[in-house]
Amino acid sequence: VLGMALTYAVAGVAAAVTGSYLQAFFQNPWVLSGFSALFVLLALSMFGFYELQMPTAIQSRLSRYGKGGHFSSAFIMGILSALIVGPCVAAPLAGALLFIAHTGNLLLGGIALFLLALGMGVPLLVIGTSAGHFLPKAGAWMNGVKAIFGVVLLGVAIWFLSRILPGPLTLALWAALAIISSVYMGAFHSASNAQNREHGGWKHFAQGFGLLVFAYGIALGIGALAGGTLVLEPLAPFVDRDVTATTPQNATPHFTMVRSLSQLQAALTAAKGHPVLVDFWAKWCVECQRMDVETYDNPRVEHALQPLTLIRVDVTASNAASRELLHHFQLFGPPAVLLVNPDGRMVAQYEGYEGPETLLQHLQQKLVN
How far apart are the C-alpha atoms of 339 and 275, rounded to whole Å? Predict the structure, then answer.
């Protein structure tokens, strides 16, 4: 566990040294595509299409480090395991690294990642002191577990691609994953053979759940063909058509786009005498896209924003100008909303996703009262 923790600590210090360049690296479409391809390869291995193994020569050399019962051997295996299982904690690890990269604090970077690894190591210590009593026994049930992890890995790959692919295409990929998963669940298998009768309860439950997943996949596919983008509301395009047929359409709020601090200051000067909403936004920001669809396209929000001057700060490039903007307002990253009163004084700053009701409440509290 200490070997693993020290490896993560080194990663934390490296993130603090490289600063925001690490964030820009992880936002590159080529990097996102590479991660997605890696997860697809891992998922196909889980489904049994092939076995992913290190070359025999490397396996033989590594195996020597784990023998002998010495603390040094266990320490080296901890270092190697940190490098091997790192992708399995991609979400919390990436979040911690990006935060450390933003602060640039070497001491904080090392300690934070060291403690993260210690937390990851607690289950290993518990299992180790139990002499293996807590470990489940191997069996055929593990094939089902592998299939579940395969689906999860494919889902992660689609989630990565959702940052760079059009919304309808992403929704089509979710539809394909749901439909294929339903087939693996036995949605269309016959329940008349002897094996199914023996395990009838679980087989029927899995088959029924598979049919539900299949139906949801069909809904996702129909929504994708209609131009939908929301996984939880795949048929939203059809609902929207019914709503707009009976209510007048409102124009989507128009934002003045800026990409540097000087441009933002000039836009704020020009807007003096009017309340202003400043929206920090990036193309790769999933929550920013969510706010565009759920918040800024909401009719009530559009009506409330009509008296305001709207400015959008585009930090997609993650260059020096973007870093200066974020640093000036002490922001970790998009999305973020700033409210400026008609006198040109900033009266509120909110970081993270703002739903329609929350944004309306903030507008009422800070700019109306």
Answer: 8
